Amino acid sequence: MKRLVLIDTANFLHRAFYAFPMQLTTSDGQIINAVYGFASMLISLVKEFEPTHLACALESEKEIVFREIEFPDYKATRVPKSPEEQAAYESQIPLLGEFLEAAGIKTLKSEGYEADDVIGTVAVGTKGKAETIIVSNDRDLTQLIDGASRFYLPAVGKGKAKLYGKKEFLEEYGFTPGKLVEYKALRGDPSDNIPGVRGIGDKTATKLVKEYGTLRNIYKNILDIAPAVAEKLADGKDDAFLSRKLVTIVTDAPLEFELKDLEFKGLDNPKVVELFEKWGFKSLLGKLGVSQEEGKEEKSQLKLL
C-alpha cells in the first residue's frame, strides 16, 4: 500500500522557527533557523514513516479566505510575531521553497482556502489509493481521521509525539473524529477566535455530542436538555451554526493533483546535499548518511552569533 504524508507547511515552519534560535545563520548572515528546523523534522518524519508519496500544503496567497468572509474576526485574536521575528520568518520562505524544490517535494495550494482544506481535499481524493498520514500541531485536522487517514501530532517541548487513528481519538475525546466539528461548534476555539456557544464548556459540549451526535439533533431535542443549558443553546444558536461552518474542513477545494505527481524519492539526492553544504547543515548531512561528521558543531558555514 502506498503511504502519503501530508504536511501542514506553515504550522511545521512556525514550530521550527521557535524551536531554534534566530542566531542560527549562514556564513553570509542569513537567518536560517526555521529552514534548519523544518529540514531536521522532515528527515525524522521520513525515517519514521517511510512515505512513498509526500506533499506540503500551503496557505492561500489571498489576504482573505472564505472563512474571513463568513466571519471577519476569524483568527483575529492570534498574537502576531514581533517585526524582527516577522522579517526573519519571511526571509526564510524563499529558502524553504528552494529546499522543497531540491527535494522534489510537491507543494499544493488552493486560492481562497487554507492549508487544512488542501489537506482535506487531498486526503479524501486519495482515499483507497494510499494510506495517509497528516502531520500538524493543529488538532482541527483530526476530524479527517478515518480508516484511510491518521493524524500525527509532533512533539512540543517535553511532550511526546502521538499518532492518532480512530481508536486513539475516541479514547482521548470520547466521540468519533467526525464529531469534532459538532463539539467545536458548541465549545468554540479561542485559538482561532471561533465563538461557539457562550457558557458551554468542554464537559457540557462533550456530553451533548455523545448523547445527541450532531448540532442539528441537539437543537431538535433542546426541550429534553436541562433548562440552564438549553437557554444557553437557544441564545447562542446562530453562533453555534456559524462556528460549525468555520471549523469544518473543506474536502472539495478547487485543486488539481494526481497521486503519481506526489511520489517521493527521498532526501539524499545531490541537490539537497548541495544545499545543505551551502547552508552549512553538516549534522543534517550526517542524518542523511552523507557525512560522517554528524554531531560536530556546525562552524564552517553555520554560526551561532
UniProtKB/TrEMBL annotation:
<dbReference type="GO" id="GO:0033567">
    <property type="term" value="P:DNA replication, Okazaki fragment processing"/>
</dbReference>
<dbReference type="InterPro" id="IPR002421">
    <property type="entry name" value="5-3_exonuclease"/>
</dbReference>
<protein>
    <recommendedName>
        <fullName>5'-3' exonuclease domain-containing protein</fullName>
    </recommendedName>
</protein>
<keyword id="KW-0540">Nuclease</keyword>
<keyword id="KW-0238">DNA-binding</keyword>
<dbReference type="InterPro" id="IPR020045">
    <property type="entry name" value="DNA_polI_H3TH"/>
</dbReference>
<keyword id="KW-0378">Hydrolase</keyword>
<dbReference type="GO" id="GO:0003677">
    <property type="term" value="F:DNA binding"/>
</dbReference>
<dbReference type="InterPro" id="IPR038969">
    <property type="entry name" value="FEN"/>
</dbReference>
<dbReference type="GO" id="GO:0017108">
    <property type="term" value="F:5'-flap endonuclease activity"/>
</dbReference>
<dbReference type="InterPro" id="IPR008918">
    <property type="entry name" value="HhH2"/>
</dbReference>
<dbReference type="GO" id="GO:0008409">
    <property type="term" value="F:5'-3' exonuclease activity"/>
</dbReference>
<dbReference type="Pfam" id="PF02739">
    <property type="entry name" value="5_3_exonuc_N"/>
</dbReference>
<dbReference type="InterPro" id="IPR020046">
    <property type="entry name" value="5-3_exonucl_a-hlix_arch_N"/>
</dbReference>
<dbReference type="Pfam" id="PF01367">
    <property type="entry name" value="5_3_exonuc"/>
</dbReference>
<feature type="domain" description="5'-3' exonuclease">
    <location>
        <begin position="2"/>
        <end position="265"/>
    </location>
</feature>
<dbReference type="InterPro" id="IPR029060">
    <property type="entry name" value="PIN-like_dom_sf"/>
</dbReference>
<dbReference type="InterPro" id="IPR036279">
    <property type="entry name" value="5-3_exonuclease_C_sf"/>
</dbReference>
